[in-house]
Hints:
By secondary structure, the protein is mostly helical. 54% of the residues lie in helices and 0% in strands.
Amino acid sequence: xxxxxxxxxxxxxxxxxxxxxxxxxxxxxxxxxxxxxxxxxxxxxxxxxxxxxxxxxxxxxxxxxxxxxxxxxxxxxxxxxxxxxxxxxxxxxxxxxxxxxxxxxxxxxxxxxxxxxxxxxxxxxxxxxxxxxxxxxxxxxxxxxxxxxxxxx
Length: 153
């Protein structure tokens, strides 16, 4: 029951993180900032993000790494630092309050949360998984057991 409410809180946080949905015909970030188009600047996947790390894990790292994640029809590029941290901390609260008795059940909870983020944002699975993994690694590494074994090498 607690996990269900926490999941709802995460979805609200992702939806309200200033990651505005673009309306049909509204200018996209590509219209405003031509160097960030999908064709010229691919969004890195988790191993690439991890390889670009220049500072230790923590809130500042989460903010900068999360901005690189493509969330489908949402964008974290214009979200405030506080909003991005809100998404990360909501993710951590989910795992902190998860009522799972085995590692397999905790990892299953991670997968459910990834799918919920995909549904809320329109992100592909890799992007949703990357955002959730970054939150765990940067903000609540004590919950690293929820990550799939191959999440970080």
